[in-house]
Amino acid sequence: LSIKSVTSYKEAFEFFNRYRIEQQDIMTSLKLDGDNSKTLYLDNELRLSLSRGRSGFGFDFTEQIKNLFPRHLTADAKELKVYAECFVDKDYLPVLRQKYKSDGYKTAKSAAISLLRVQHDKEDYGHLRAIVHGVEGLASTVEDTFKLAKKLGFEVVEHKLIHWECIPASYTEFKAWLKKNIFDYYYDRTQ
Fold first, then answer.
1. H or E, element range at 135
2. Cα–chain-centroid distance for residue 166?
3. pLDDT at 154
């Protein structure tokens, strides 16, 4: 669903129904709109962190991401690539605007970009969040990846594993199920 916009229950039903028919479980998670970071760990040491970059060239976030991510891991992997969305707590945006006399902190995402590109006061990083939504090289399933990432000290995106047997076969039942098991589930966890 993250690749393609879904604009109706019917499209969502078709998507989930494919998993039910193929008897495959599906991991759902919140879609976050922050500044994307890719962080590389080699031999359990944080080595490099970059923004995604529009033209293939990203900004180097390595020093600033050390305010958010562990510098050293106790993972059983030679190389890990950690993918996260970074944003500033909404309530802290007025503080940043006042403190730095700048309009560059209009949104949670633009404020994150500022904090990651240029060194700020240490206290400001307490309001910057990096939510991990993927780690290459950690585990063989998304569920295990999220569990292990959490154990290693990362904040992980809110997620829920849906077993294929739980997905209703009827469109009418699916609409009620989707509201209760997906929409309400995430709404309750983000309030």
1. strand 128-136
2. 25
3. 97
